[in-house]
Description:
Layout: H1 8-22, H2 24-52
Helix pairs in contact: 1-2
Amino acid sequence: MGIGGISVWQLLIVLAILIMVFGTKKLKGLGGDLGGAVKGFKKAMSEDDTATKPVESEAR
């Protein structure tokens, strides 16, 4: 049994159908775009975390 009740064979069949419908070039481009979006989201989240942290004053 695979992820969430989906077997490896079912995943391979779905992958084969996607390759036949869209082609490898379009899927590669889609994967690159998705990776770039995730990377940009993580960068924005880390920038937001640093902006919301209180700055300690040096005058003690």
